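TA notes, week 10

Several of you asked for a full example with nothing omitted. So below is the full record: structure tokens for the whole chain, then the designed sequence directly under it. When grading your own attempts, check the secondary structure regions first.
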């Protein structure tokens, strides 16, 4: 029965075009991240050439991703060897945080600029609307009323719930799944 309900729900979401926010938040845990990535790739209707270009972009970004992933180990080693004052410790942590922010920003910028070169304008808009989950004001009003019906003025700004695959550590975790999905997609279509 559970599988039937899941299948009907998934079919309904896909039929209504809700492949982004709701699918990622509700269904993503059931079907796996690689399948979720494949759903998004299929919803974007990428050509084989676009898939190859996207795979090339991901391959170019993997070394930077690996640097980011190994940064906590580097910090751990630096903290083990540290024998300085509290001020020096604050400086060490500040430089670590600055380096991490810079590398994450570089990863984001390179990924987004590469995507914009690969995707058409319509595909980019579909990606932003589906994955990033930008919501229309009417949807926010309904969410605000449902979440806080007793006093809407107490919470004037309700942020949109977002799955931001194009940002920060989420992008770092997302890239290997994207690479696997792109490779599998190319193998499936015979290119």
């Amino acid at each position: 029965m559970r599988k039937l309900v899941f299948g009907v729900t998934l079919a309904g979401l896909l039929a209504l075009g809700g492949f982004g926010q709701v699918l990622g938040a509700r269904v993503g845990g059931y079907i796996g991240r690689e399948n979720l990535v494949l759903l998004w790739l299929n919803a974007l209707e990428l050509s084989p050439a676009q898939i190859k270009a996207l795979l090339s972009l991901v391959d170019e970004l993997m070394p930077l991703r690996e640097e980011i992933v190994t940064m906590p180990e580097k910090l751990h080693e630096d903290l083990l060897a540290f024998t300085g004052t509290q001020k020096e410790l604050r400086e060490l942590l500040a430089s670590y945080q600055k380096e991490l922010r810079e590398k994450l920003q570089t990863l984001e910028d390179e990924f987004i600029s590469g995507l914009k070169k690969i995707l058409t304008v319509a595909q980019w808009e579909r990606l932003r609307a589906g994955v990033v989950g930008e919501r229309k004001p009417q949807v926010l009003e309904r969410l605000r009323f449902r979440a806080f019906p007793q006093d809407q003025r107490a919470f004037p700004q309700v942020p949109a719930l977002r799955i931001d695959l194009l940002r920060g550590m989420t992008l770092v975790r997302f890239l290997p799944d994207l690479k696997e999905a792109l490779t599998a997609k190319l193998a499936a279509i015979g290119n």
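DSSP finds eight helices and no strands in the chain. Use that as a sanity check on your answer.
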